[in-house]
Structure formats: C-alpha cells, structure tokens
Fold this protein.
Amino acid sequence: MSSVTSAEPAQLRRNSVGLASAVIMSAAIMGPAVSTFFNPQFSTPFSGEATPFVYVACLIVMLITASGVMEMAAVAPSAGSFYTYVSLGLGPTMGFVAGGLMFVAYALLPPIEIALIGAYLQQTIKQAFGFDIPWIAISILPWIAMTVLALEGIRSTLRTAMTLFVLEVAIVLLMAVIVMASGGAHGVTATPLTPSASPSGLQGLITGGVFAALSFVGFEGATTLGEEVRNPRRNVPLAIALSTLAVGLIYVFCIWAEVIGLGPDKVNALTGSSTPWNDLASLYAPWMTPLIIVASVSSMAAVMVNGNTGVVRVLFAMGREGMLPSALGFIDPKHGTPRNAVYFQSLFSALVVIAVGAVSGGLANPDGGSNVYGYCGFVLTLAILLVYILANLAAIAFFRRRGDAHPLRQMLLPALGALLIAALFIAQIILQTDPPYTWMPWMIVAWLVLCIAGAGWLRMNRPDVLAKAGAVLAAED
C-alpha cells in the first residue's frame, strides 16, 4: 500500500530498525522493572494479595485487545499508529478523537517517569547517605537526556533502550528467582493467583486492574515505528505479540514472587510511595540492593525514552497531515527526526512534572514525585483504554468494509477486546469510591467531548484537512 497523497509528505528515515528493535520499543515502554517495582503498590491498596491474579487477567485481556491493533498494523503501517488506524476504520472524525486521546496517554508517559526517577532517587540517596536532594532537582537530568536522545535519532534512542531493557529484565528476574527459591515469608503458594485473595472483593480487583493495565500501556509502541522498521507489515504485528506475551509473563512471575516474599500482611499495607523491592533485596539478598536500584532507574529511563519516542511520532504524523500545527510535521534534515515535535513534548513534560508535583505533594517532598506518577498514570491509562476500544472497532469496520474479514482474527477477537476494555472502564466509574480517582474518569470523558468538538470544527471549517486523516502510510519495500 503506498501513500495516497499527491504531494510528497515529510518522511521519517525508512528501514532504520529491525524486528528486535521493534520488540524492544514496545517492551521497553511497558517497562518490566518499573512496572514490577512501582505499579503493584498502587494496586495493592485495592486488590491486595490478589494483585498477581489481576495481572494474569490483565495479560489475557491485553492479548485479546492487541488482536485488532495487530491486524491494522499489518495493513496500515504509519507513525500515526492508532490515529491512522481509527481514521481508516471509523473515519477522520474519530481518527482525530483517537489522536487526542493518544496525546493524553503517550504525552503523560515521559513526565511520570521523569518524576518517579526523581522521587525514587531522593528516597534512595537519603536512605543510603543521609542527605536529602529535592526530587525535582534530580529530575532535570533525565529530562535533558530524553530530549537529547530524541533529537539524535531513532537508532541512538533504541540502542539505549535495548541496553537498559536487557539490564533491567536480568536483574528483576534474578531477584524474583531468589525470593521463590528461598520459600518467601510463609512458603510458596498459588493463593495470590486466585481472585478470592482480594481483601476488597470485586471492587478491589477492578481498581487494581486499572493500575495493572498501566503496566501494559505501550504494548503497541512498535506501531509508531511503522515508517521506520524494515518489513513493517510483518514485523510490527509480530513485535506487538512477542513483547506483550513476554513482558506479561515477567509481570505475573515477578509480582507473584513479590507477594510470596513479603507475605499478605505487608503486601496489603503497601502504598504508592513504598519501595517493596528494596525491602525484598534487604530481606533475601542484601548484595542485590545496588542492582535493584540500577534496574529501577534504567527501567524508568527506558519507559521515559521510548514513551517520548512514541508521542513525538504521533504529534509529527498529525502535524504532517494538518490536524495539528504544521510546524510539528517538520523533519530535521541532518538527523531525520521531528525536531519541533521533540521540543514541544519536552516542554510539555517539564510543565506537567512541575505543576502536578507542586500541587500534589511539593517539589522537595518525594510524595510529590510519586503522586505525579500515580495520578497522571491513572489518567493516561483511562485515556489509552478508550483508544484500545476505538482501534478494535476500527479493525472490525475496516475489514468488514473491505469485504474479506477473517471471522476470528478480524471480527470476533477485536469485538471481544473492545467489550472487555469497555467493561473495565465502566466498572471503574461505577465501583471507584476513592478520591481523587473518582473524578478522573470524568476528566477523560470531558477531554473526549472536547476532541469530538474539535473534530466537528475541522469538519465545518477545514474539511480538506480532516479528509486527509490517516492518509500517509509507510511505502512498500
């Protein structure tokens, strides 16, 4: 499938990366170590000892949800990712809406990791050396590194991500094996893999599930490389499947090991500011403590860098097609990178970190950085859940309209994926009782309405621009 535009659009550097890099793109955004070290303690106040079960359920749901995304990636590779898929399947209006929701989801990934790096290192340095450095000061360094790597180009970014990914996975798996081999706090048991272990019943499982879903955000990250990866129609869907399954299994095993190692009482008492893997290292392998710190920071950095790569390409694609200011579609002639989109996202990340951190705990208190991660992470997860629904509905509509839909892969599985994600989103609204999480779904609903209104304005005032949504695809090899 070739580009359907008559003018020659700005293009990213083709054939820059292979399958392994595409797998790393998705896997590193999910962040096995950071999601294992920091996400469960946002779930445990709700799902408690049953948090490993929540991750098993979430893995199954995400594999089903990924089906429609993979089918669209195979026929419509593009840097626009979901924005392009939804435009082609459900029309340009909904494509614009998907792009708006993607912006919330992807654009918040870099700042939450920047803040978490600062908060985690502030606590770690204080525990180890006794002096207190404000988390916001520490966060400046990863923010600068993220921006520089994005300007250098995709190869530098993915080489860095691959190194960090291999390091973090090796360390987190080693620690989990040590815990399980030692028998944990009260022996190895399968109880944490059952729903009955939830101290708060169904409500706890549902809310815990949203934070488990946060751990899977980014499984589709390879789709944003659709114009840069070799053989994208094969490699992008394969990268999605491989990364989702592999990282999901790592989550389940390692979080099961965490619950076994700490025991039910300690697990049920965890909060978002806890550092349970530091505790596991001190209990079972004190020599692992420095490695846990290294894995934590490297994983957060990998999510930050790859999340930034993804959102920059979505901004570029929408700017290139006129959905956003055309300056965002500019390509730096030397590095082949969307320079203006990089600068925009870098500034946005800094503003989010400072604003949310200041009002939710302060720029010197590590709770401020942890709350940036918890609150913004919850919001971005809700936004991406709606995008997943739209992407699966788009796949059904696209292949049905084309007249050659495969009953299972392109109809039944996408429909089931959309229903499962919709159920999670709606259940969150119905069952959530803890502020500020109670009003966060309504923030996303309000943003959805604004995006629909924006698409309506484009349809009335710039219909030629709206009609081009999703038009620029990767060229045939």
